[in-house]
Amino acid sequence: MRILRIRPIIGLIIGPALITGSLATFTLASAGPAAAAGQPVTQTLTPPPPSYYTCKTAGNGVICEGALSESYGPDDTGIVCGSGAGAFDIFDQGTHNKHAVRFYNTDGDLIRLTRYDQYLSQFSNLLTGAAVPHTQHNTTTDIFTVPGDPSATETTRGEVNFTVPHMGAVFLNAGRTVFGADGTLEFSAGPQGFIDYFNGNTAALTELCTALAAS
User: Fold this and answer.
1) In the chain, which end has fewer C-beta atoms inside a 10 angstrom radius, N or C?
2) Cβ-count burial of 119 within 10 angstroms (0-12 exposed, 13-18 middle, 19+ buried)?
3) 208 and 194 Cβ atoms separated by less than 8 Å
4) How far apart are CA 50 and CA 44, in angstroms?
5) What is the CA radius of gyration of the chain?
6) What are the distances in angstroms from CA 50 to CA 44, 151, 171?
7) What single DSSP character describes residue 34?
8) From CA 155, how far away is CA 141, in angstroms rounded?
9) Terminal Cα distance for the chain, rounded
10) pLDDT tens digit string along 119-151?
């Protein structure tokens, strides 16, 4: 389970008027070698990039990049607070700004994918209407052992912060995780409360659940 980015937990706040400006800043800040000019691509790429990507030949292969902003939710996170009659599910809703860069080899097979994700969202208890805003920033790099094959080693760095007025920070998930091509967690550093929760430690989300239990 790839938890450092909350979406998808399942699969980690911006007002509508700020989305365009923030995404532009986000894209410029994260742009790397893929921004360099190159020749148009005529070969078949495996797997093909999404339609919003732009591709150029560069060095010994092809680089494609794209940026997108989208709203989502409310989605059930799979997190349950409490037990019995007082139990409730946590839902996630907000805006996802993403910028991604794909690197293909000379045969047109994908060998590396880097994603820059920004979530500006909130967790909520739909039963009471209580909500806790959260901000999330992640950089995720997939290295494909077999070029073009969907299996990859995934390294994610970033953080998710949940802060409540008059309460302060009620949850922080931050650090670095490495998942193998088979989905096994190979390395974890920093507070990883979501991983702890899904591994059976429900106490890891006690403060967050308390904040969301308020009416």
Assistant:
1) C
2) buried
3) no
4) 13
5) 19
6) 13, 18, 34
7) G
8) 5
9) 31
10) 999 999 999 999 999 899 999 999 998 999 989
Phi-psi map region of 159: left, alpha, beta (phi>0 left; psi -120 to 50 alpha): beta
Please state, in angstroms and rounded to a whole number, the distance separating the CA atoms of residues 85 and 79: 16
Residue 35 token pair: 């921004």
If one compares 8 and 90, the residue with the highest pLDDT of the two is 90
Residues in the chain: 215
Pairing of strands 153-164, 168-179: antiparallel
Torsion angle, CA of 154/187/9/67, rounded to 10 degrees?
A: -30
Q: Report the pLDDT averaged over residues 59-68.
A: 93
How would DSSP label each residue in 78-121?
EEEES-GGG-EEEEEEEEEEEEEEEEE-TTSBEEEEEEEEEEEE
pLDDT average, residue stretch 179-207: 90
Output the six-digit token pair for 143: 């290295």
Lowest mean pLDDT among 32-46, 49-63, 117-131, 157-171: 32-46
